[in-house]
Specification:
The protein has 310 residues and is α/β, with parallel strands linked by helices. It folds into two domains: 3-90 and 278-296, NAD(P)-binding Rossmann-like Domain (Rossmann fold); 91-270, Rossmann fold, CATH 3.40.50. 31% of the residues lie in helices and 16% in strands. It has nine helices and twelve strands. It has helices spanning 14-23, 71-74, 91-109, 112-120, 144-155, 178-187, 208-213, 231-240, 280-296; strands at 3-8, 28-31, 43-47, 62-65, 85-86, 136-140, 159-163, 175-176, 191-194, 218-222, 243-248, 268-270. α5 links the parallel β6 (136-140) and β7 (159-163). The structure holds NADPH dihydro-nicotinamide-adenine-dinucleotide phosphate and oxalic acid (OXD).
């Protein structure tokens, strides 16, 4: 039987532990930092494990990220090398990310913050029309989540295009690659949705130069990682009217520091890294399946390409 060490950010991991024990009551699961003898541990299930801790398990055979993103593991300078890393790919998560994107595109398009403010003042504004056909979504990252989001937005009747490292064949969704492709897509996108992984190549991808290519009065949505947005460039673009509003779920520093200017900026809709939720029973079942696969030497689900960094 494998021994699993589990660490779920700031939270207790009992939800996962219960689900794993429902599936296999014999599993030995130790919640960090109560790890016992580190030499017993062969599987690590982690979200935001403090750096340096994974290196303390000499017999580790598999690392499982309890998130879709793996930057929390790969940024650990002491991450043990040569051990497979798998991540969450969960249909429930993809659906809830799609809801986050749809909700915020519509909130920004329909200017709900403005109408909420009018309501507070008991003001009944003059009639006006909102043209849904004017929405052109561009998604940065057409991977597991980005492609689900693209299809859901398309099913809502929105025009959608996307940018990724490799070309995609998604019916009715133009696919762009490379620096030229990004510029071309930005020029015809007024709702830019970021669902990229955090890698050296994606840091700062949403910056003043990119905003300047977009039509005036465009919107930015980020549920990828905070590092992909140059936050000061967003504020400057909002002040200049180049960008009309934003919806952010991820930030350079999380939790967002109390003194951060975004807190008071009503042009920015904020959610606290809650865009997508996982379905714990489904994810626990996939993790258990991966443990079995690892033991049998079969291909793993959600295997991360360590070279690409996602
Ligand atoms: P995937 O690995 O399935 O998709 C990543 C996509 O980004 C792929 O299409 C990939 O291209 C593209 N990409 C990567 N690097 C580049 C690059 N340099 N240039 C252009 N495109 C690039 O990941 P997921 O869709 O599952 O998740 C994406 C990210 O979403 C996660 O890494 C995480 O940071 C974030 N996330 C945030 C959550 C939240 O609650 N806010 C929840 C879950 C995830 P290609 O297809 O060609 O490889
Ligand atoms: C993430 C997640 O990667 O919540 O942010 O899965």
């Amino acid at each position: 039987m494998p021994t699993i060490v589990i660490k779920l950010g700031q939270e207790r991991a009992e939800g996962y532990i219960n689900e794993l024990h429902k599936l296999d009551p014999d599993l030995e699961i130790r919640e960090w930092p109560e790890v016992g003898d580190p030499a017993d541990v062969d599987i690590a299930m982690v979200w935001k494990m403090p750096h340096g801790e994974l290196a303390k398990f000499p017999n580790l055979k598999l690392i499982m990220s309890m998130a879709a993103g793996v930057d929390h593991v790969l940024s650990d300078p002491q991450m043990p090398r040569g051990i497979p890393l798998v991540r969450v790919t969960d249909a429930h998560m993809a659906r809830s990310m799609s809801h986050w994107a749809a909700m915020n595109i519509l909130r920004l398009h329909r200017e709900t913050a403005h109408y909420d403010a009018l309501r507070q003042r008991r003001e009944w504004p003059p009639e006006r029309a909102f043209d849904a056909d004017a929405i052109q979504v561009g998604i940065l990252g057409l991977g597991y989540l980005g492609s689900h989001v693209a299809r859901m937005l398309q099913a809502m009747g929105l025009k959608v295009q996307g940018w990724s490292r490799t070309a995609k064949q998604l019916d009715g969704i133009p696919s762009f690659q490379g620096a030229d492709g990004l510029r071309e897509m930005a020029a015809s996108t007024n709702f830019l949705v970021c669902l990229l992984p955090n890698t050296p190549a994606t840091v700062g991808v949403m910056n003043a130069a990119l905003f300047a290519l977009m039509p005036r009065g465009s919107y930015i949505l980020n549920a990828g990682r905070g590092a992909q947005l140059v936050e000061a460039d967003l504020t400057a673009a909002l002040n200049a009217g180049q960008i009309a509003g934003a919806a952010l779920d991820v930030f350079t520093v999380e939790p967002l520091p109390e003194a951060h200017p975004f807190w008071d900026d009503t042009r920015i809709i904020m959610t606290p890294h809650h865009a997508a939720e996982v379905h714990v029973p489904a994810v626990a079942a996939t993790f258990l399946d991966n443990i079995q696969r690892c033991r049998d030497g079969r291909p793993l689900q959600g295997l991360v390409n360590l070279e690409a960094g996602y």
